[in-house]
Amino acid sequence: MRVGPSQDEIRRQNLGALLRYVHVHGATTRAELTTALGLNRSTIGALTADLAAAGLVTEGAPKETGRAGRPSLVVRPESDRVFAYAYSIEVDRLRAARVGLGGAVLDRRELDRPRGLTAAEAAPLLAGAVKEMRQAMPEDAVCVGAGVAVCGMVRRDDGLVRLGPTTGWVDEPIGTALGTELGVDVPVTVGNVADVAAFAEHARGAAAGCDNVIYLYGDVGVGAGIIAAGRRLTGHGGYSGEVGHMVVVRDGARCECGNRGCWETEIGEHGLLRAAGRSDARGREAMLAVFDAADRGDAQAQIAVRQAGDWLGFGVANLVNIFNPEMVIFGGTMRDLYLAAAAQVRSRLNSNGLPACLEHVRLRTPKLGEDAPLVGAAELAFDRLLADPLDVN
Amino acid sequence: MRVGPSQDEIRRQNLGALLRYVHVHGATTRAELTTALGLNRSTIGALTADLAAAGLVTEGAPKETGRAGRPSLVVRPESDRVFAYAYSIEVDRLRAARVGLGGAVLDRRELDRPRGLTAAEAAPLLAGAVKEMRQAMPEDAVCVGAGVAVCGMVRRDDGLVRLGPTTGWVDEPIGTALGTELGVDVPVTVGNVADVAAFAEHARGAAAGCDNVIYLYGDVGVGAGIIAAGRRLTGHGGYSGEVGHMVVVRDGARCECGNRGCWETEIGEHGLLRAAGRSDARGREAMLAVFDAADRGDAQAQIAVRQAGDWLGFGVANLVNIFNPEMVIFGGTMRDLYLAAAAQVRSRLNSNGLPACLEHVRLRTPKLGEDAPLVGAAELAFDRLLADPLDVN
Does any domain span residue B186? Predict the structure, then answer.
């Protein structure tokens, strides 16, 4: 029969599938690729040859296995040579990194970020960090793209940061600013930090192999990256996952978004510090100080932590009833809060969650830790490469 | 290059795509199919011939267009001959229908459902209705499957109804019971009524062409069918969308799920009737009576409706912040409540929703009305056919 989708399209899909496999799993034998991708040996051979010619993978002998028979060749991603730039713009710091195909951070720089810094001011600082990294990198290194993780609502179409309530950003074109400043001739993809971290943990972290995941990320505010049926949930404009602005207390405390009683007013920085009687303090260090004080027996800190933990479980139960996830991951300050108040979180989750939704849900902390935003930002760039491996370069 | 996916697989995909197109859009010229599916004319011809040979479509001359040149042949779904059985199990009634390929309800039966009826008791009643419909149908009619819409949490793997808080069902194997009773030799697919209605509105109703949709369905309780990036959100076990059990009032009114302050305690049947001072009343008629009374100037009914409308907007705002949908559809009793209190719903949504999430969201009532659960249940069955058109039969 005459077929519709072109041979080219199928080839592109297969090239992407093979490259994705070694990107996620690292060095893989041809035999394993044959099984994992459901393609025959000669197809795997031809795809590997194409990817090797493009400088994306190498092929070589495996380590000695001790088994008889001709060993299957091993396909490895060009992890040291092919890389993406990854940026993370956080409330109080800026980070830049080179992340290799395969997900390893090859080099990194970190800068303080004065609160109030605009996109136009942040871009040259990050460009400086990139310049340093460029001087240190191998001559034959190839950049396949750049990704940015930001605290804020990011418009899917063009990466405009519509609103970063905690950074004060309104309609900041960080992607454009970085592209101009860096002179990188590949597009810069921008994503919300929780979405990006969820993407990273799903690709190669705590949620590897899980198709339905909520990654809860706390900074000053709280957001979620959501994986549904194995895919990132973005919403219509790219703004989904604003779970911190789920109202849990009618006429509750004033939130930075202008509304009242948002979930993050109870579990975010301000809520915890307020409950601990430390309303004048700010920042993650101040939050950690509350957990420390609770640990050391400070009664008011203990009450504040237990109360915030209970609210954390309260909102997580709502999300579990809405999404029926397999896993909830607590990242950023939510990790600290979860670890400090796990009993309260679980107790409230168990009383508010529907039994069928609670059945298989696992609570976890991130595996990639602080690197998740960088690794995830790089994944945004690699995603373009994997969609059409031979088109990039 | 030697390709992986077989010609058979591609052919199956193309057959499914063509059949889906005429299933959704009705009679379509070959020329339009060529454009819509991106396949060439000879491929469309071959696919159509295969589908016609299988009795799924017919091909014929179009109506006179008045334009010069050889007119393009028109492909029509075999809407009268090829059908699915669709069942809807509701709190106070049972419905059965034959739905033709293309989505038209060909025949239907409705029965009262005494509250408390089990799956084993419901199946023979529905089988009786089917027997009647069989006697009335053309001799060459072909059943391609059966779908069931139920109020309750449905396990994705096997269609077991884990919990129907409003029907009292716990672990009721309605799919199996119906399959046995009906002697239909195709599998019965079971889905939650809100999911199924959302599916129908997305395929051929108010949300046609929208990729991110929340369909809010009210009965005694409240649930949502969610379409994200064009696909049904099911969650890990099939239980997603239990938005009625998002807690909105800490230590609020007792819910049928055993918890307190669930959203449905404020916007569902019990909440509205309680607020209207009619706690002894039950059922949709009683709810409609409250809306009527409010319309006629009954002060307590007006307060109850405004309050429930405000709570409706409150929860919708939370969902809009979480999902960033393009459209929210109000079905079942939520339609009545929305129409009675649209001002309150919009006002609360506007004050609690994040501006970027509110930008493009449209509020709508269903286009398929009462038929949505039946049409959607049939879609569950057609989905299997469309995945592999020549395998069924």
Answer: yes
